DNA sequence: ATTATTCTGGACTAGTGGGTCTAGTTTAAT
DNA sequence: ATTAAACTAGACCCACTAGTCCAGAATAAT
């Protein structure tokens, strides 16, 4: 009985893709099961047969989205210290102000109240990964005598906070302005300098 | 004709209070006009006569909430540099992890897509005030020779980012843990030290 | 007491949405 | 060809909601 799984996987993928796009763009309540079905080119009943109800579909969609956001691209922490920090700051700085990233984050944060497991997934696949990786890196560089971060996780938290900065707050609230945008790269370089001033061994 | 305004102001206040509490706690779509009316001890029609429709009521509620969050309490930037920064970090650090603050922020960020003017109000009354005040303070201290922040607004952005840090991310996603919580104060003191190491003249 | 306004409570409209059910069709394995 | 499963299209149920309307009660100014 491995027969019908062929067709079924296709439909499932279509439904999930549609759900991701629609939920991330418009949120949970704004999207109806009919809209998902139509967008997936599938009947309403098929949606229900693949995902039992709206909340389950939503959870599946968010989890899928978290995994496909491409966070890992920011996390190549290798090579010379300053180069590495700079590259990370630029990449991660872009990542967190991307539209998809922001929308997903806001959605999870907002729904965190009544769907706790959702926020947990997002945190585990997002912020937690970054902070952990970065603090591991800082601990390593401290061990090597390049940095002096007695509390690597605090240093990671500080560095990430700085990289987010005003731009993240503005982007989150759709209040990005020209000035913050064009200064962004210089600001991030400045963060690296400032961080090294405080923590370089 | 200043007569009926006596009674009317009372009802309006009751409605607004109920709306603030309910909207901030449960969001826009989850709250119905009937619930607001019942919570305010008022008839549905009275709600409509005071605030034309749901969106207007929502906007009024959010604006009122933003003004009453008590952000200003964090902003007493006077006295000796390190003491002042420490006090600010502790106060503002508490403020941004408070339940009411977080819920309001998340709500505004989430609704920013389809209610732009709402996010604008929140940004103007919240983040913008803090960044501006802090950068004004840094500029002043630099002028006085106590600090060396050639770009005060960047320094403000960095300091605020650090103060938020992991705790803010966790709180936002209902993922606060014991460790982050008990270490919070020490972390904030560490931020001040780190900041001064990088920027003290 | 009169009068204008507000407020109440409930009925009403018109639309929406989650979820189920069914009858008939397609699909693919045997 | 048969069979079992998945799929479709649409009707259907039930509960809910923004907003309107209205008749009567309360309120306050004159």
Describe the protein in words:
The structure is a homodimer of 201-residue chains. Chain A is built from 10 helices and no strands. Chain A has 201 residues and is mainly alpha-helical. Chain A folds into 2 domains: 63 residues, Homeodomain-like (Arc Repressor Mutant, subunit A); 129 residues, Orthogonal Bundle (Tetracycline Repressor, domain 2), CATH 1.10.357. The first copy, chain A, starts with a helix and ends with a helix. At the A-B interface, helix 6, helix 7, helix 9 and helix 10 of A face helix 6, helix 7, helix 9 and helix 10 of B. The structure holds a DNA duplex (30 and 30 nucleotides).
Question: What labels describe this entry?
Answer:
201 residues; Tetracycline Repressor, domain 2; 2 domains; homodimer; disordered N terminus; Arc Repressor Mutant, subunit A; mainly alpha; DNA-binding
